[in-house]
Amino acid sequence: MSSFSMPLRDLVFVLVICIVWAGNFIAGASGMQHFSPFLFMILRFTLLLIILLPFIRRPPPGQWLRLISVCLLIGALHFTFMFWALSRSEDVSTVAIVQQTYIPIAVVLAMILMKEAVGWKTLAATLLAFLGVLVIGFDPLVLRQTDVLAITLASALFQALGSIYQRGIKGVGVLSFQAWTAVIALPLLLAATLLAEQGQLETIRSAQWQHWASVAYSTVMASLVGHGLFFFLVQRHPVSSVMPYLQLTPVLAVIFGIIFWGDKPGARLLLGGALVITGILVITLRARQKAVLGSAGQD
């Protein structure tokens, strides 16, 4: 079967993933209007742990260090920096687009840390994606909030590192992994909120339904539904076949930002975003092509 010949059911699942992940940028921006970033993540991971506690399993021997590293990189650092960027940003679109640079960043890190060979087409696509970020950086809106650009790039860096090391985790199911992420990240987040934030109890007491809805959406829809369906798909299709479809996520996030958040992306942001997404699409398609050629060589 061609890797682009997914059954209709799986294509619907991909669309659901893109919609709920794009919606998470809106939910995060909404939650950041009331909660501080560390407190929001504490509430999110507490709810996630309550739901997933029955599914937590002890990881196999030799997996602890890698599991802890990935959970800290993705759970405590990537998500916190992403929501921190949303809390400071005037729009959703900038964060949604720049966050996708974790894919080309992962390519560069894989070359450096894992000594992976990268072809010239993938390298050119990586440079194209970074050129897109440079173009975005000169958008008037982004120039007013260069801190948001820096924070989002840091979030993408942590996600890229986590994605690379996550490849080596064996024998840990998706629900158990998410539960462990909450267990491992919560102590660090609790220490961070006590040191860097104030008025947490009053913030919790004064939260309205829409603020709690943002926490629930980020937990249930983005984590459980989104990551759960993604895990379901990659069990049935090569990751390189699923990833190109997921480039719809930042496109939907920009559309949602315009409709629900009042975003007015400028020409440079849209052009830079197009360069970023094009570069990422080429990277994922090249990965797919390598996987297909590798499978053919083994037949």
Architecture blueprint of SSEs:
Elements: H1 8-31, H2 37-52, H3 64-88, H4 93-99, H5 102-113, H6 120-137, H7 140-143, H8 146-166, H9 174-196, H10 200-205, H11 209-234, H12 239-242, H13 248-260, H14 267-298
Briefly summarize what is shown.
The chain has one domain (8-298). It is 77% helix and 0% strand. The protein has helices at residues 8-31, 37-52, 64-88, 93-99, 102-113, 120-137, 140-143, 146-166, 174-196, 200-205, 209-234, 239-242, 248-260, 267-298.
Commentary on this structure:
- Helix 3 crosses helix 9 and helix 6 runs antiparallel to helix 14.
- With 299 residues, this protein is mainly α.
- The protein has 14 helices and no strands.
- 77% of the residues lie in helices and 0% in strands.
- It has one domain.
- The mean pLDDT is 89.
Q: Give the low-pLDDT segments.
A: none
Strand content: under 5%
Mean pLDDT: 89
Radius of gyration: 19 Å
Helix-strand category? mainly alpha
Largest sheet: none
Number of domains: 1
- Total helical segments: 14
Distance from N terminus to C terminus (CA atoms, Å) equals 14 Å
Any key phrases for this structure?
299 residues; 14 helices; mainly alpha
